[in-house]
Amino acid sequence: MATDLSRPAAEQGAATGFPTTRLRRLRQHPRLRDIVRENELRVDDLILPLFVRTGSGVRQPISSMPGHAQMTVDLLPGEIREIESLRIPAVILFGIPEHKDAVGSESWDDKAGIVQQAIRAIKEAAKSDLLVIVDLCFCEYTDHGHCGPISERTGRVDVDNDATLENLARQALSLARAGADMIAPSGMMDGMVGAIRQALDGEGFEHLPIMSYAAKYASAFYGPFRQAVESAPQFGDRRSYQMDPANSDEAMREVELDLVEGADIIMVKPAMAYGDIIRRVKDRFGVPVAAYNVSGEFAMVKAAAERGWIDEQRITLEILTGIKRAGADLILTYFAKDVSRWLQNAAS
Ligand code: PBG
What we know:
Blueprint: H1 30-36, E1 46-53, E2 59-61, E3 69-72, H2 76-85, E4 90-96, H3 114-125, E5 131-136, E6 150-151, E7 158-159, H4 161-178, E8 182-185, H5 192-202, E9 211-216, H6 223-229, H7 249-261, E10 265-269, H8 275-285, E11 289-293, H9 295-306, H10 312-326, E12 330-333, H11 336-347
Parallel strand pairs: 1-3, 1-4, 1-12, 4-5, 5-8, 9-10, 10-11, 11-12
Antiparallel strand pairs: 2-3, 6-7
This protein binds ligand PBG.
C-alpha cells in the first residue's frame, strides 16, 4: 500500500502495533505526561456567574449552590476584588429585581434595573479589565417566570416570540448603555440574535459582541439556578422554546441561524451531558464555543463531595477538562474561584 505522507501512518493501518508501539512510554514520567498533554484547563477560559439583588448589606446564601449567594450592589466591590485577585477574566450577571410584572419591564430600566446598577458598580470598582457579561432574558423579571410576555396568539398560552424580540432589543440597549462588555441572550426565541444585533448597531454599539445561548436545552439541570434567581415558571415549562434533550441535528440549525444573525460566540448548555453537541458545533462551524457548566451539575458535585463520596477537586478538574476536550473554548462555571485556587496551588 502506498504511504500518504500527509496522513499519520497509524491512520493508514501501518504496522505500528505492539510491541513496537507502547503507549505507556509517554505515560511513565510526570514531565513526559505534561509535555504531551493535549488539553489544558486555564483560569483565562472561565466565566463566573454572579447573582445580584436589590437592597443593601445583604448576602443571601443559595442553599443548593454552596459558596454562592444573592448579593446586593454595595457588596460587589469586595466581591470584585476577590475575583480580580484570583485572575478570573470575566463575570456574567443575573439579576433578581425588586418588582416583577407580566412583561419584565424592570429589565430595561436604565436607573432601577438591578443589573444596570451592578454593571456601573463593577466598572467603578474593577482595577483590572475584568469583562462584564450580562445574561439577557426575562424569566427573572416576569411574575409568571417565563422568558417573555405570554399571549394566546397561537391558540395556546405561550411566550409570544416576536413581542419578546422587541423587549429583548430594549433590554440589550439599556445594558449596553450601562457599560456591559458582552450581551448573552438566553431566552431561545427565534430571531433573538438578529433583533439584538440590529438594535445595538442602530445605537452605535456595533462593537459589542453577542454570546448566544444557541443550543440551550429544556433541562432539569437548571433546578438550583431557578431557586437562586426565583424564576421557576408559575405554570407549564420551557419546552416550547428550549430544545428537546434528545436532539442534536436541531442544535446545528440553531447555531447556524444564530451565526447568520451575527452571534460572535456560540454557547451550548448544559455542558456535561452535551459534550457531543459541543464537539459537533466546534467541528462544523469552527467558531468560539462556550459551554455552561450549570447549577445542577455544580450542585451534584458539591452534594456528593460533602458526603465524602467523591474528591471534589479531582472530579471538578476532570469534568471541566472534559468540557474543554469536547471542544469548548470557554466555560461558564460556579467553580471558577475554586479552580483558580487549585491551579495556583498546583503551580506553586
Ligand atoms: C435563563 C437562564 C437559566 C440559566 C441561565 N440563564 C435558567 C433557565 O433557562 O431556566 C440556568 C443556569 C444554571 O442552571 O446554572 N435566564
